[in-house]
Amino acid sequence: MGVEEEFLLVGPDGSPVAKAQEALAASGNDNREGGTGALEPEFMEEQLETATHPHASLTALAAEIRAGRARAQDAADRVDARAVALATSPIAFTGTTVSKLRYQQARRVFGMTAREQLTSGCHVHVAVADDAEGVAVIDRIGPWLPTVMALSTNSPFWQGEDTDYASFRSQVWTRWPTAGPTRRFGTPQAYHAAIEALVATDTVLDQNMVFFDARLSPRYPTVEVRVMDVCLDPDTATLIAALVRGLVETAAREAADGHEAPDHGVELLRTAAWRAGRSGLAGDLVSPLTWRPAPAHDVVGQLVAHVRDALVDTDDLRVVTDLLGRLWSTGGGAAQQRAWFAQTGDLHGIVERALKVTHS
Fold it and tell me: By the 8 A CB rule, do 73 and 219 touch?
């Protein structure tokens, strides 16, 4: 498994600054090809992205998540900026699209959707044997992805205002025409046909702009889960990586044992995701066991129970339990941001305190 994290670049006052390419050049990390272990630009000049190498060990992955954050900060330091794990900026901004032909084309085609896409996510990749196993996994994990997203929620503020969402990033992200949950595909042929049909509409630029919540990675032999906010705390990123690997392994086992993939309908999956983005861990989530609302703590417990055997087999259960306890004690990124703002009424102060947690 591997983790990609996107970070905001902010100036001394906490406002986003357009210095990504300058920071990468100054730090010697200006390889635009990217890849595992890379530090690279994202869609906006106010962002940097890190990518870990693949790891079997959760301990090794956790160490590289922290190392990636330090690498991003080292690059930012060279241009009088800082790298912070906030999925949206609390402070009002005007985004700057990276001067890459494809990104500039996307800005022209998608208008404000592209211009306002200063959001930072977390993507988890988990290796699969082949496309058949990957599609079998994608067909089975969808009902649990809103719960995973709720654990990551870290974007309550947008353009200087409290949005009343735990993840407003998820609202901004779903403006893209191909973003969101997917139907049951059944076979790799059906999956690839769906991708080809979307590209053939000439609405998206290419297959890399098919932004399904979970997809076969265009770059690696993995299932890529893309629903999460970048996590404020590096431990939360580790927790989510463990749970996503557990979901992928559980789904692969179900498929191998001949259990048919459920077909709950995209409308239910989309509604459950909206609810997770709205309240995060602070309210009810939609339980995949009943498709009725239940307290977030209970639904997270159902997720852990669902993947328990996989967590035991990778020796991750104790770590997941410990990290969940820590997450519940803080309330997660969205709750922490709101608590900090309630104490001071200062949006700039949120960024300052978030920087300390980012690099803890």
Answer: no
Task: Residue 219: count other Cβ atoms within 10 Å of its Cβ.
Answer: 12
φ/ψ of residue 83, rounded to 5: -105, 120
Q: Please list, in sequence order, all residues whose beta carbon lies within 8 angstroms of the beta carbon of residue 5, skipping any fewer than 6 positions away.
A: 49, 50, 65, 68, 69, 85, 120, 122, 230, 231, 237
Cβ atoms of 236 and 150 within 8 Å: the answer is: no
Pairing state between β 222-229 and 82-84: unpaired
For residue 159, give the nearest of 144, 171, 146 by alpha carbon: 171
57 vs 182: CA distance, rounded Å:
30
Is 148:141 a contact under the CB 8 Å cutoff? no
What pLDDT was estimated at residue 29?
76
Read off the pTM: 0.96
At which residue do the structure tokens 């009725």 appear? Answer: 292
Beta strands 214-216; 47-51: pairing state: unpaired
Q: Which residues pair with 47 in a beta bridge?
A: 8
Nearest to 44 by CA among 116, 110, 123: 116
For 62-104, the pLDDT digits (tens) are 999 999 999 999 999 999 999 999 999 999 999 999 988 999 9
Concatenate the DSSP letters of all residues of 39-77 into one string.
EEE-SBTTEEEEEPPP-S-HHHHHHHHHHHHHHHHHHHH
Average pLDDT estimate for 23-49: 81
Tokens of 17: 């600054």
Domains of the chain, first to last: 2-358 (3.30.590.20)
- Between the CA of residue 24 and those of 38, 240, 339, what are the distances in Å? 11, 28, 34
- Torsional sign, CA 241, 356, 170, 18: negative
Three-class SS state of 245: helix
DSSP per-residue string spanning 270-306: HHHHHHHHHHTTSSEEE-TTTSSEEEHHHHHHHHHHH
